[in-house]
Amino acid sequence: MPSKSFLLNNTINASIITIGDELLIGQTVDTNSAFIGQELNKIGIWVRRRVAVGDVWNDIWKALDEESRESKLIIITGGLGPTADDITKPLLAEYFGGKLVVDEKVLAHVKYLFEKVYRRPGPILERNLKQAEVPNVAAVLHNAWGSAPGMLFKKKDTVFISLPGVPHEMKGLMTNEVIPYLLKNMGVQAIVHRTAFTFGQGESMIAEKLIDFEARLPLHIKLAYLPGYGMVKLRLTSRGEHKEAVEQELLPYFEELKGLVKEFLVADEDEPLEVVVGKLLLARKQTMATAESCTGGYIAHLITGIPGSSDYYKGSIVSYANQVKQDLLGVQQRTLTQHGAVSEETVKEMVQGALQQLKADYAVATSGIMGPGGGTEQKPVGTVWIAVGNKDKVATLKLNLRFDRQRNITTAALNALNFLRKFILTNS
After folding, report:
1. Are 251 and 305 contained in the same domain?
2. Burial of residue 354, with CB atoms counted within 10 A of its CB: 0-12 exposed, 13-18 middle, 19 or more buried
3. Same domain for 238 and 96?
4. Residue 169 sits in a domain of what CATH number?
5. Looking at 185, 216, 241, which one is the last position of a domain?
6. Same domain, 166 and 199
7. Domain boundary among 267, 298, 322
8. Residue 141 scores a pLDDT above 50
9. Tens digits of per-residue pLDDT, 333-360?
């Protein structure tokens, strides 16, 4: 059977090159590549490679050479600042056989920023004015959000676009300059994804369920497994000239996929659990609250990270200490003495207390031992109790996690949200 990867040759392939020593040593997390990849994918351009290089002339030059052999579009970020280690602009000038010249429009923009927007005392530094220098072989892309302009080059049949590494500047240029240019000047195929979100079953077990399904897929439809903490996203991808036709062809395969994993299916969209739970509550015009111990407010953090969550989220009581469990949530001293903070009995009372104190329709509570210390033979590290409930009923779930502290916290929080999701569906 031929490899499905050969189908990528039928679309526009792109490479992303990120420049900066800070990326290689982990001082800065590369969020730019993720954003660029998402935006290119939306318009049917396939990112075949992401490459990170340091502020080294030869390494950048080599990356440009290597990526342009296979990709028709090269997006470069970083190295456009005013300091000595920012070498991208002079390198690109030499690479494309040009020289640096002052662009009067960019110069005017730089002066405007420093004189009217930033309003820094004293004269504009020479190094800042040099931001207006661009290779005379480049098309300048206006950067309304900063002093470093974007630049577009062509070499044979490959397009090279250089963008600032500052995320908000890069995003502004991608949205307002790069994407419109690509849509107008590069023929693109439609790329369509459909994603099923499952929770509670591992990647291997789900793959076993899908062996026959995957074998029957046409060569141009690809199934990808995207595992996370307790979850697996199943993404079907296809491509073609017309988006509507691709969507129609993909739909029956996606419906079959959902049916095969229905007992673990959370959503048929690529959205996190906190969004799924929020939609359930909004649809029912109901509210929730959280009472957290071992997760330390992480569930609340996930929920309040969603715009509009104030419509259904009442608040949280982070009762890390037993005294707080007693004073604010009404957990009985007898319960803590007899059963301990990490117990089914305690999380039940935490839920009841949160419902009463925060006046919500549903509440979720967590208590556990996240590690690395604190465990006992009876309650080892990774023991977590979760409770969810409403005024009529409380349900509990016990987890035995085996990860490091941060992963235990994340996994416990996600399991708590999924447990609440199931409870809402069966008790509303």
Report:
1. no
2. buried
3. no
4. 3.40.980.10
5. 185
6. no
7. 267
8. yes
9. 999 999 999 999 999 999 999 999 999 9
- Same domain for 166 and 290, yes or no, is no
Predicted pLDDT of residue 289: 98
Please indicate, yes or no, whether residues 260 and 298 belong to a single structural domain of this protein. Answer: no
CATH for 263: 3.30.70.2860
Q: How far apart are CA 64 and CA 157, in angstroms?
A: 14
Q: Do the strands 383-389 and 394-400 form a parallel or antiparallel pair, or are they unpaired?
A: antiparallel
| Residue-wise pLDDT tens digits, 212-257 | 999 999 998 999 999 999 999 999 999 888 889 999 999 999 999 9
pLDDT of 275 strictly over 60: yes
The stretch 393-416 carries a mean pLDDT of: 96
CA 349 centroid distance within chain: 35
**274 in Cβ contact with 303 (< 8 Å):** yes
How many Å apart are CA 18 and CA 14, to the nearest integer?
13
CB atoms within 10 A of CB 204: 10
Q: How far apart are CA 139 and CA 197, in angstroms?
A: 43
One-letter amino acid of 130: K
Q: Are residues 262 and 285 in the same domain?
A: no
User: What's the pLDDT score for residue 10?
Assistant: 53
pLDDT digits (tens, 9 = 90+) for 41-79: 888 898 999 999 999 999 999 999 999 999 999 999 999
Same domain, 170 and 211: no
Structural domain including 147 reads 4-185
Query: CA 20 to CA 10: how far, in whole Å?
Result: 32
Regarding whether 204 and 175 lie in a shared domain, the answer is no
Check residue 272 and give left, alpha or beta (phi > 0: left; psi -120 to 50: alpha). beta
- Residue 358 belongs to a domain with what CATH number? 3.90.950.20
Indicate the pTM of the whole model.
0.77
Q: Measured between alpha carbons, how far is 393 from 380 in angstroms, rounded to an integer?
A: 29
For 369, phi then psi, to 5°, come to -120, 105
Domain count, the chain: 3
Q: Cα–Cα distance between 312 and 254 in angstroms, integer?
A: 31
pLDDT of res. 190: 79
Nearest by Cα to 281 from 306, 301, 317, 318: 306
